[in-house]
């Protein structure tokens, strides 16, 4: 019998005739080979090299670099920008209204390095009622700030967004309320009980 060109089956690896479209042993479809391709074609040498220890190490290194490049492009972000957090708080705490029980246009400042500061009027209806022994509006506000602080703790990667400080803008930044990660650190209402 003459020397017939053969190739390896892509599925089972057995030697089959080079012209075969399907493996006679396992039935797998075979890629078409041109006449110039033989057992030691350039692709075959690459496949054989990949099976060597150096080839495996190189493939691992390339795979690792691809994973690192992908991971660095998908790194964890701090969450939304400070303006978005400020708008969300304004909507949640003050219903985005200009006139509130806490004064006209409460000012919310969000800093990713310092946390959230809210400035309200010390002469507002809510603070006056609190000082007069009617803390209902203030207590609702405190509960909302506490809930929002706690939710920020669980939602945003930057935990400083859950640090909320409420001060009086017309009384030299007098501290009225301080909440950190859903826990009240200071509440001026304690002073009036």
From TrEMBL:
<feature type="transmembrane region" description="Helical">
    <location>
        <begin position="53"/>
        <end position="71"/>
    </location>
</feature>
<protein>
    <recommendedName>
        <fullName>Zinc-ribbon domain-containing protein</fullName>
    </recommendedName>
</protein>
<dbReference type="Pfam" id="PF13240">
    <property type="entry name" value="Zn_Ribbon_1"/>
</dbReference>
<dbReference type="InterPro" id="IPR026870">
    <property type="entry name" value="Zinc_ribbon_dom"/>
</dbReference>
<feature type="domain" description="Zinc-ribbon">
    <location>
        <begin position="9"/>
        <end position="29"/>
    </location>
</feature>
<keyword id="KW-0472">Membrane</keyword>
<keyword id="KW-0812">Transmembrane</keyword>
<keyword id="KW-1133">Transmembrane helix</keyword>
